[in-house]
Design brief:
Blueprint lengths: L2 H8 L1 H8 L1 H10 L2 H28 L28 E5 L1 H4 L11 H10 L4 E5 L5 H11 L6 H6 L4 E5 L4 H4 L3 H19 L8 E5 L7 H16 L7 E3 L18 H25 L11 H8 L15 H8 L15 H7 L9
Parallel strand pairs: 1-2, 1-3, 3-4, 4-5
Length: 357
């Protein structure tokens, strides 16, 4: 039942009070005229307050204003960046992505395993490979993401967010922090190209700074990579996840991998950034000027609706409510062709997709 229907039905006591002859006669018999006027005023105010409360609750739940609650702008308060009704996060990187050292979870899983429950989403793909360097990761992604039926491509496709966390092993490969940063930049560009749908619909990619090491011989390399990522942070090098803030107390005896408590900490860093700063940034990149609950960039190309009109087929339901809530056709005012518009059926409590209802 629509919220407007609920509000309409909630008003019936006011109508009954104003028009019921029996009620009026009973009140006149029980109260003097002056007191009766005060009683009537008080009852009207109480009933109207009740209707107002219903309206406020409906607004708060996002029923009247679907742009606050529909699936395309947000799912569980997170942006559905590619507007496919699902949330998917993909993480690529090395053994710290894989979760080595996470003894609480069998020496794997790490912060990526913890991120899904924190965000309350099930699709968080861990593509971490122990020992991999930035150059090898770039080559692997270039090869596998270019194959139509490759399993890695299938796991990464349709990602809303992609996180890149790699670079520590480059110390043993070439030892050049600037080259590691350049390779990470190339990985970001590759992911956007191979996982996107054209130039506009690309995943939201972010880079994690390297976690601290207690190895004295490797410390300056890690710190210099992080320094470069911070200095040249940009759209091409979006190094926003501050894994470098993890306490060195949480580094395991091997001097590189976090212990389980360390993975707890960096999962919280990732969670907080995605929930707050990333969500705000993602929202700023997805306009919904007609406030119909569908991002403008997807209206013409994906759903064929009008990004300048809140209700394209003028059936009383916004495009977002039709697409994501009721699954009706935003281009057809009578989806089940039964002679009543979709909006009329929702208001009446019948099924707009069933011509027999």
């Amino acid at each position: 039942m629509s919220c407007m229907t609920i509000i309409h039905r909630a008003k019936w006591p006011i109508v009954m009070f104003q028009h019921s002859k029996q009620l009026g006669a009973a009140l006149r018999a029980s109260w003097p005229p002056r007191e009766l006027s005060a009683v009537r005023t008080s009852l009207r105010a109480s009933l109207r307050a009740g209707v107002l409360l219903v309206a406020v609750l409906c607004i708060a739940s996002g029923v009247i204003f679907p742009s606050l609650s529909e699936a395309c702008p947000k799912i569980r308060r997170l942006i559905d960046f590619n507007c496919d009704r699902e949330l998917k996060i993909v993480v690529v990187g090395d053994s710290i992505v894989y979760g080595k050292g996470d003894l609480d979870n069998g020496n794997r899983g790490g912060w990526v395993k913890r991120l899904g429950p924190l965000l309350r989403i099930s699709s968080v793909q861990n593509l971490g490979i122990p020992g991999i360097t930035t150059s090898r990761l770039y080559s692997r992604l270039a090869r596998k993401l270019g194959k139509e039926n490759d399993p890695l491509r299938a796991r990464a496709l349709n990602a809303d967010i992609v996180i890149v966390a790699v670079g520590t092993n480059d110390f043993y490969d070439h030892g050049d922090p600037s080259l590691a940063a350049r390779n990470i930049k190339r990985i970001v560009a590759l992911l956007r190209k191979r996982l996107g749908r054209g130039d506009l619909v690309t995943p939201y990619v972010m880079i994690a700074k390297l976690t601290p090491t207690t190895r004295s011989f490797q410390r300056s390399f890690v710190e210099n990579v992080n320094r470069i990522l911070a200095r040249y942070r940009s759209e091409a090098l979006p190094s926003y996840l501050r894994f470098d803030l993890m306490s060195e107390n949480f580094v395991s005896v091997d001097g590189v991998h976090p212990i389980s408590s360390g993975y707890d900490e960096i999962s919280q860093i990732a969670f907080s950034y995605i929930k707050d700063e990333a969500t705000k940034d993602m929202k700023s990149r997805r306009a919904d000027k007609d406030r119909d609950g569908v991002f403008d960039m997807f209206e013409r190309g994906q759903f064929l609706s009008d990004p300048a009109v809140k209700d394209t087929d003028a059936d009383g339901l916004s495009d977002g409510r039709e697409i994501f809530r009721y699954r009706t056709d935003p281009l057809n005012p009578d989806s089940d062709m039964d002679g009543r518009s979709d909006g009329e059926e929702i208001a009446a409590g019948t099924d707009p997709l069933d011509p027999t209802s």
